[in-house]
Write a structure and sequence with these properties.
This protein is mainly α. The chain is built from 22 helices and five strands.
Length: about 550
């Protein structure tokens, strides 16, 4: 049985090493790092310490990618396609990676110097993760070897932001091997199969997945006992998370009392998958139940400790790309796709509290969320460092600047025909871009009128032209639908704006000032502009065209 246990340990090691993944560019304009990183006890030592981000966790945050980054196993720079790299790049900060494949909350706790009572590291936990430990039960990865050049606590001490993404192996990976150990420990007549099983693993006949473990137990005649044992081990994993996570947070707080801690939740990689072709064993539902339990606990502990919970339940994994029965070899990789990593990065950035510097934007105002969003994403800043001026009207210069920021501040060569502007004004580059791309025109052939107020219909028209430029308009809006909704002042709208207004309405960008008035000719306030920009960025720019 000892040899069989070694075989199971080997299988788990291969499963963990093979089970980790990948990301696309983060959408929208240049993001504002000052909105995210206001905390640091070490700001006096320079910006590199004030802007330090530490990512703690398992293979997902380590950035392992089976196809392109299969040598990245942890404690090293993460690939550009991983969510920690995207977060660090967006915030323009120093990234300190502190993740390793296979980590459970137990390994993360030990890596932070937290003593784990012997009874909590029971025989099966040591057995299942023996490849991580030496004979004395000390984990190999924080013993001063080259694998860990500096302790996690070093990076955490300087961090403005720390993300914790761990728990997946506690409840979804380790239980597969631990349950097999539980079942086979009670058996004695299958020792003659050990050589064949070892040979199958070595030859690659087994797929290093849940399906492989299920098939293995089926060969041994214990498939009926195996699934209940997996569920029991999943339950034990949930309880172990509840033991370790408070210690991890307390330890990080003792190292750094001001850095923001964000706990990244779990997603269910199995969807509607079944373990068998008959669909009787629905591994997807099992995974959803355990993920819901862990996420519920993470929300609770965040409320108690002041951490931020990050909901990533809609993360796309490679398993989502090939739905079906796991036994058919489909959807075996549970790690995020490139799109999934981009989504996780966005969820983290959106969850971090915005430190808004504007004294004239109270939290109870309807436009607070929009101003927060625009400030966080550098889409629309204040008129002064501490003033947003929500009730002031938007000028033509302000509008082209906002749209230019939304586009990512592209550079444009050439000159402008307008005589009423100066090349040293803040909006000059934005105007060159907007004019060249037919987003805005002059009030005459030689006059732009940068300080003239903008109407709601004119701003929506410019926004519509920008959406067309980006290929984000599939169909024109329906003005008849807009009229049927009951806006009685549509007759006052300019004919050139009707198509734009109907498109904006159909895509939930513009709303009425009341139930019967769209106010197309009314002057656009800065608060209204922030709301329109936020809705456009969320509903159109970040998601693609909507009919």
């Amino acid at each position: 049985m000892k040899n069989l246990r070694k075989v199971l340990v080997l299988l788990l090691a291969v499963m963990v090493l093979a089970s980790v993944l990948g990301l696309q560019a983060f959408a929208a304009g240049s993001r504002n790092p000052e909105a995210y990183l206001p905390y640091s006890p070490y700001a006096a030592y320079g910006d590199e310490y004030r802007n330090c981000y530490v990512s703690l966790g398992d293979s997902i945050s380590a950035g392992y990618d089976r196809a392109e980054n299969n040598t990245c196993i942890g404690y090293m720079p993460t690939p550009e396609t991983s969510y920690p790299s995207i977060v660090a790049k967006t915030l323009n900060c120093w990234h300190y990676p502190a993740s390793f494949i296979g980590y459970r909350t137990t390994e993360l706790a030990v890596s932070l110097g937290i003593p784990i009572p012997e009874e909590e590291l029971d025989l099966y936990h040591k057995t299942g993760y023996a490849w991580m430990y030496d004979a004395d039960g000390q984990c190999h990865y924080w013993d001063g070897s080259a694998a860990v050049p500096t302790p996690i606590s070093f990076g955490a001490a300087y961090a403005s932001l720390m993300t914790i993404n761990v728990g997946n192996n506690d409840v979804l990976t380790a239980p597969l091997s631990l349950a097999a150990v539980d079942v086979l420990e009670a058996a004695s007549k299958y020792e003659e199969n050990e050589a064949a099983i070892a040979a199958a693993i070595e030859s690659g006949e087994l797929c290093q997945t849940l399906a492989s473990m299920y098939q293995l137990m089926n060969q041994l005649g214990y498939y009926k006992e195996y699934i209940p044992a997996v569920l029991a081990r999943m339950e034990a994993g949930v309880e172990q998370i509840k033991v370790n996570m408070p210690k991890i947070i307390e330890r990080l707080r003792s190292i750094n009392s001001t850095g923001q801690i964000a706990i990244v939740g779990m997603y269910n990689p199995y969807g509607e998958m079944s373990l068998t072709d008959s669909g009787l064993i629905k591994i997807g539902k099992m995974g959803q139940l355990v993920c819901d339990r862990v996420n519920s606990y993470y929300k609770q502990i965040c409320e108690k400790t002041g951490c931020v919970y990050v909901d990533v339940t809609d993360t796309e994994s490679y398993a989502d790309l090939k739905p079906g029965s796991i036994l058919k070899g489909l959807g075996e990789d549970a790690h995020p796709t490139h799109k999934g990593h981009a989504y996780m990065a966005k969820q983290i950035l959106d969850a971090i509290p915005v430190i808004l510097p504007y004294a004239d934007v109270p939290e109870n105002k309807w436009y607070r969320e929009s101003v927060d969003y625009c400030y966080r994403n550098s889409l629309m800043l204040g008129t002064k460092a501490d003033t947003f001026a929500p009730d002031e009207y938007m000028t033509r210069a302000m509008v082209v600047t906002v749209l230019w920021k939304l586009a990512g501040e592209p550079k444009v060569d050439g000159t402008l025909p307008f005589k009423d502007i100066d090349a040293d004004r803040y909006y000059y580059n934005a105007l060159k871009w907007a004019y060249k791309n037919n987003i805005v025109k002059g009030v005459t052939s030689t006059k732009f009128a940068p300080d003239k107020d903008v109407s709601r219909q004119d701003f929506v028209t410019m926004l519509y032209r920008y959406a067309q430029l980006e290929g984000l308009v599939k169909q024109k809006g329906s003005i008849s639908l807009l009229e049927r909704f009951g806006f009685k002042d549509l007759r006052s709208a300019a004919k050139y704006s009707l198509e734009s207004l109907s498109w904006a309405w159909n895509n939930s960008i513009i709303d009425g000032v009341n139930s019967t008035q769209l106010d197309p000719t009314g002057r656009l306030t800065r608060a209204q502009c922030a709301a329109l920009i936020m809705r456009f960025d969320q509903n159109i720019y970040s998601t693609g065209p909507v009919d």
